[in-house]
Backbone:
């Protein structure tokens, strides 16, 4: 059955890496129909909104969405889209690849980030000119969903260790509810896990990322810790991600629009192609997902390299090399 | 004039490292009177509170406080003490020392963390069993105070660069007020600085800590980013800190009570002794502060090492070596 994929390139290098991922997907023996959606700075300038309702509708109706990258308006684009696909989990694998310079080559982690709550729930007010507040929200339902998802994910991927990240020594009621709910779910599912304070975890991840595997985290903590892990593996250029809901999902590289190199045709499409591999697995096309992943890995190890990895290959040359490996 | 110092060892290795710092301070030609204050797990067991009112009073009345370490009850001890001294700034230098294994030996950063607000303001409620909220508070006054302090600190320490960390793309009103206020203060003080999103900053710090110098941050972000930086320099064992108010201050190592080695007399007292050096500078005893810092550095470079740094020296041997260098 044809899968309809909303393809939203967005800003900057999003325009270059998304086509690369589509080329890879089209080389597989699967039936995808790609429908392009508009979003980004240029759209904002023309239409007064960076994310037209039509694009949101497209994401809501599609079987899945591929998103490229966003610039300064990222929060106005990606956060609503994550809501449109009703994603509650943001999955961010952070892995060092052979042949890619990494601060910590032994890093191989997956963040399972809660995708709807915390400070992102966004109830903010300017009480006066001088005083602003933000209401951070944690519910048992959302905490349960992310814990269940994270624990299942860990089980399916034979994770060595599950860590639940939090700051419940300070945010006693909100993160308290988050960790208590995780504890309940763990008991119901008969799962073993550790808890870690996000500050201590930030230090341990830098020192010994190899000690961790699947990390279930509240929303903002997941944002920061996954970027930290991107640093460990050599930068955001390598991190794919999935935003997964019950019936829909959106896949995007963790990197931004890279205005410094946008338009030059030299962006590294790895994170985007690996995000497409996550989409394949989301559809149950596990073998295809694995093929794409292996192809990217092989090219990263001995193929042509884009400038961010010390080479001078173009996005196209890199992508062609991936296609040859398929 | 005699300075009265509240000396609160707290839990675990706090009992070992604080006396080491006092030995160093007593070796200087200064007039300190140390008054011990009780806090910690054992106190909680005996008295039903980990931080008796008497200890809080002592900290409030003293010219400054030295704090050792706290265990699981840390939040119930250190947060009230930071309030008792009316500290608004938490200064955390993170520096790699020659001779100490570091993930990033070029790290030499100072976090200037806002010490009163954000999620630590702590207005939390369980709205129902299943829903909890926390009100994050940012005021212009507190943002102004930390920006002024951070910018002055940067100036006094000839900082190469000032970075204001935030997540104002999501926390638009609260962190928006924080960054807007920093911008106003920078204009008034004619200071140059950059802004950085905390997630991107987490990545850049891992990749290129040498690009940063003084980082002014909201409360929780400072907590997490400074621990990240501790990882970069080889662990929390090396990070001193100062909690500074208008008329009072508290100095503490960033590390915890290390129950695994507590009682063995092998704790590394560097962070505590360096915290005492920060106290010396707070009193305007800059030369003494520098002497202590130099002595610690020399010992770290070629002196006896405690087990955390790969040696087998005791806390006492290490401290004696520092005393010899003074
Ligand atoms: C652009 C921003 C709103 C977003 C977030 O905070 O989630 C980004 O940092 C990310 O992690 O994808
Ligand atoms: C113990 C805890 C409350 C504290 C904090 O969050 O400030 C600690 O992590 C620190 O950074 O000193």
Residues:
């Amino acid at each position: 059955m044809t899968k309809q994929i909303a393809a939203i390139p967005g800003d900057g290098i999003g325009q270059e890496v998304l086509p690369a991922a589509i080329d890879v997907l089209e080389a597989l023996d699967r039936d995808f129909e790609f429908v392009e959606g508009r979003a980004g700075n240029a759209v904002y300038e023309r239409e007064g909104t960076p994310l037209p309702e039509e694009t949101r509708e497209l994401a809501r109706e599609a079987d899945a969405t591929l998103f490229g990258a966003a610039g300064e308006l990222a929060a106005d684009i990606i956060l609503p889209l994550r809501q449109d696909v009703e994603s509650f989990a943001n999955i961010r694998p952070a892995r060092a690849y052979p042949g890619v310079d990494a601060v910590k080559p032994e890093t191989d982690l997956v963040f399972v980030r809660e995708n709807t709550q915390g400070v992102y729930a966004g109830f903010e007010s300017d009480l006066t000119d001088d005083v602003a507040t933000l209401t951070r929200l944690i519910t048992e339902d959302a905490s349960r969903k992310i814990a269940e998802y994270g624990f299942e994910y860990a089980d399916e991927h034979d994770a060595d260790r599950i860590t639940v990240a939090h700051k419940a020594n300070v945010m006693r009621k909100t993160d308290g509810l988050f960790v208590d709910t995780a504890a309940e779910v763990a008991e119901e599912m008969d799962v073993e896990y550790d808890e870690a304070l996000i500050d201590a975890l930030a230090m341990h991840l830098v020192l010994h990322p190899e000690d961790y595997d699947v990390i279930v985290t509240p929303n903002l903590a997941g944002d920061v810790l996954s970027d930290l892990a991107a640093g460990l593996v050599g930068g955001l250029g390598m991190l794919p991600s999935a935003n997964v809901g019950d019936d829909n999902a959106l896949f995007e590289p963790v990197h931004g629009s890279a205005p410094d190199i946008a338009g030059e045709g030299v962006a590294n499409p790895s994170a985007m192609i690996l995000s497409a591999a996550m989409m394949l697995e989301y559809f149950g096309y596990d073998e295809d997902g694995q093929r794409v992943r292996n192809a990217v890995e092989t090219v990263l190890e001995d193929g042509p390299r884009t400038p961010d990895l010390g080479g001078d290959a173009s996005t196209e040359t890199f992508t062609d090399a991936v296609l040859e490996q398929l």
Q: What stands out?
A: The mean pLDDT of chain B is 96. The pocket of 3-isopropylmalic acid (ligand 1) is lined by residues A 74-75, 78-79, 223; B 169-170, 199 (CB under 6 Å). Chain B has two domains: 1-87+244-325, 103-233.
